[in-house]
Amino acid sequence: xxxxxxxxxxxxxxxxxxxxxxxxxxxxxxxxxxxxxxxxxxxxxxxxxxxxxxxxxxxxxxxxxxxxxxxxxxxxxxxxxxxxxxxxxxxxxxxxxxxxxxxxxxxxxxxxxxxxxxxxxxxxxxxxxxxxxxxxxxxxxxxxxxxxxxxxxxxxxxxxxxxxxxxxxxxxxxxxxxxxxxxxxxxxxxxxxxxxxxxxxxxxxxxxxxxxxxxxxxxxxxxxxxxxxxxxxxxxxxxxxxxxxxxxxxxxxxxxxxxxxxxxxxxxxxxxxxxxxxxxxxxxxxxx
Length: 288
Ligand code: ATR
Prior knowledge:
The longest helix has 16 residues, at 253-268. Helix 10 crosses helix 11 (274-285). The chain is α/β, with parallel strands linked by helices and 288 residues long. The protein has helices at 5-8, 24-34, 51-57, 85-90, 109-121, 137-148, 161-170, 185-191, 237-244, 253-268, 274-285, and strands at residues 11-16, 40-45, 63-68, 82-83, 95-99, 102-106, 129-133, 153-157, 177-179, 194-197, 225-228, 249-250. Helix 7 (161-170) links the parallel strand 8 and strand 9. Bound molecules: 2'-monophosphoadenosine-5'-diphosphate (ATR). 2'-monophosphoadenosine-5'-diphosphate (ATR) binds next to helix 6.
């Protein structure tokens, strides 16, 4: 091995199952190159029964940290030495950092979401009336971030209302959360300053745009910024309909880039080259 052998072995890992379509390798490798950091980002296919071993490997030499995604974001908590406050509150980890000789769990989804809102859409959530579609892991991160940023009220609407109720109960002390049943949706849309789709409805499957919206036909907000966390396709049916109605929109790519930037900054201690990361993610999204 050359004198630079240990440098060349530096890496950040993605633990996922499956890992196939992730944009993170393209994004982080471009960032490492841009800053002249001799490291690689490697996606690992880790089945649930292999998670403990994969996390143990992160304690070895050369590992800067890791990202964690479906289906490991919750199971990984028990394997770490500590948690950042957001990760503890959300109950999910998307980033692992080497710290104080151990592994610390972070959740950068919420921070990434807020950065996308503020920097790319020019939207300040303080005092805002929000309507959130969905009640899964992404909804938890987004709801937590919005309440922390001073949103006045967050309405939750989900196909399975019990899940929305559980989310509302979990964050009840952090702010005003309310479950909206189907019949209350149009009123919620009327009042909303911000609509966020955190469900997977509208996401491409097998490369095809399913051309479905998470909102019932004919319903749209009156004046809200419409954010869809889906970025494949780049413009979902929800975003196309919102645009056609003259509403401002944002897809999930800015949040993806900023959650990655927040992870990169923790691993390297350097400011992430966000424009380079975004260009790499966009290039990886384009059909070859
Ligand atoms: P994530 O961590 O990405 O949020 P998740 O926990 O699986 O993923 O949550 C997916 C969300 O999309 C949920 O709110 C889910 O609704 P349910 O709680 O009713 O399952 C929502 N979702 C997925 N497919 C849907 C569909 N066809 N119609 C409506 N909602 C859907």
